[in-house]
Amino acid sequence: MDKTRVDDMLIEMITPKVREIEEKFGRGEGLSQDDINTLLLKSQYNHINHLDHKLDEVVNSVVALEGKFAGLEGKFAGLEGKFNTFKAEMVGEFEKRMGALEIKFEQAQVKMQETIISTMKWYIGGTGLILILLKSLDIFVK
């Protein structure tokens, strides 16, 4: 705790009187109302000093906590950056795989179309051949 000039002045002002009161009390003499008030003033001043000391501790703790929170903010910002990078990578990977699946699907569609066209050609050709054979048999058998 840092003492100010006022703190020092107050201590200097009441210290001689407090010593007198302590000596007076040590001799067994009674204390006047002024003596009691001076002792109360010293007690209150000591209490205020104690509270000032505790306040300084609390302020230091708050400053330390602010530093820790600033550090946590930095860590969360870093984590957010890593998450965003990971997310972008995953989106890119997903889009790449979907593109590859799309190409494979289109290739499968083309192959199925070619297979259907080829099969239809065989069916139509086969049906035509059977009709020609049946018509030829019909002409020769008559």
Could you explain how this protein is built, in words?
- With 142 residues, this protein is mainly alpha-helical.
- Helices cover 92% and strands 0% of the residues.
- It has two helices and no strands.
- Helix 1 (5-26) packs across helix 2.
- The chain is rod-shaped, with a radius of gyration of 51 Å.
- The N and C termini lie far apart (132 Å).
- The mean pLDDT is 89.
Keywords:
about 140 residues; mainly alpha; 2 helices; about 90% helix; rod-shaped
Instruction: List the total number of helices.
Output: 2
Helix and strand succession? HH
Find the count of extended strands (DSSP E, 2+ residues).
Answer: 0
Q: Helix/strand/pairing class, anyone?
A: mainly alpha
Integer average pLDDT: 89
Low-confidence stretches: none
Portion of residues within helices: over 70%
Radius of gyration, Cα only, in angstroms? Answer: 51 Å
Largest sheet: none
- Shape, please? rod-shaped
How far the N terminus sits from the C terminus, by CA atoms, comes to: 132 Å
Proportion of residues in extended strands: under 5%
Summarize the structure.
The protein is an all-alpha fold and 142 residues long. The protein has helices at residues 5-26, 33-141.
